[in-house]
Write the structure tokens for this entry.
Amino acid sequence: MATAFAPRIFSGIQPSGGLTLGNYLGALKRFAEKQDEGIETIYCLVDLHAITVWQEPEALRHQTREAAAAFMASGVDPARSILFNQSQVAGHAQLAWIFNCVARLGWMNRMTQFKDKTAGKNAENASLGLYAYPSLMAADILLYHATHVPVGEDQKQHIELTRDIAAKFNHDYGVEFFPLTEPLIEGAATRVMSLRDGTKKMSKSDPSDASRINLTDDADAIAGKIRKAKTDPEPLPETLEGLAGRPEAKNLVNIYAALAGIAPEAVMSEFGGKGFGTFKPALADLAVARMAPITTEMNRLMADPAEIDRILGQGADRADAIAQPILARTMEIVGMVRSRQV
Ligand code: TYM
């Protein structure tokens, strides 16, 4: 059914703290590539999602501008893609409410992200917003009739839920109004792992700063973290199969492949049989060469926050123009009286 809809890409990132190499390889880098493929691309800083856990107001403002700078420094061009922050387009919250009435409690109870985020804590004390988070995410995507969503692997379940919500809405109201959106989970870096533990996802919320490369890290910090990354004493194998049971080695190979834009097999043919004493400096050089210019550009952009706000404002106007008719039609399908012409 998605084929009946014009291809349109939507994706989002939470401005809830420093972004990592995982966000860059799993999302930002691919967002820029999609834009360059000539598909319509809409990218969003999801500040409504960020406040599902406590954010200091000034920090949230800073993080939102910094995330906008990260998009642009990674190659997202606001003249070709729509770039905006979620709270500025009211339709996200409005459609999310309608979807709260479509989605079932049982569906929400199966969401692993809520379980992960409340693990070891008192779930009774989590915000209602954190629980309803996936239905707002479905609204983000379906407010634009987006057909494809590039994300890392951790978001797969949320996209499946988005399809369930679209299908139930279409079925309940007897329409074919919302597309069944496809996730795009492609490439070597759909799940970048911690540099300290190859079985854990690289994450901004990991207490160890050495576990991740932040987009704000300078060249020395990047090289240092790669030099100290956990590995094993064996040399790299000649084939990918040889990486089985070696999560840290596999992670570094995948990072190298994604940064270099080559297949992991090509990394094995270059470094197979060589030790980490050779591989790590090569990876550090590559990471610095790719990431340091992004950090420099982010700093340049952050020196002019008013310009960032202007770009986000323009993006919000463009996003709103697409969203308004879709939201109006949704309300009409649901049976709401349109009493005001706005
Ligand atoms: P968030 O902010 O946690 O992450 C943003 C994007 O980065 C990807 N990512 C990773 N990819 C590979 N390896 C990692 N270690 C890694 N860490 C993060 C995520 O998969 C994601 O693509 N719920 C979303 C935000 C969102 C959204 C949306 C996304 C809200 N509405 C609509 C797509 C469409 C989230 O929390 O992403």
Notes: The CA atoms of residues 120 and 315 lie 39 Å apart. The chain has two domains: 8-190+304-334, 209-300. Residues 10-14, 22-23, 26-27, 46, 49, 137, 140-141, 149, 151-152, 154-155, 158, 189-192, 201-202 surround tryptophanyl-5'AMP (CB under 6 Å). The mean pLDDT is 96.
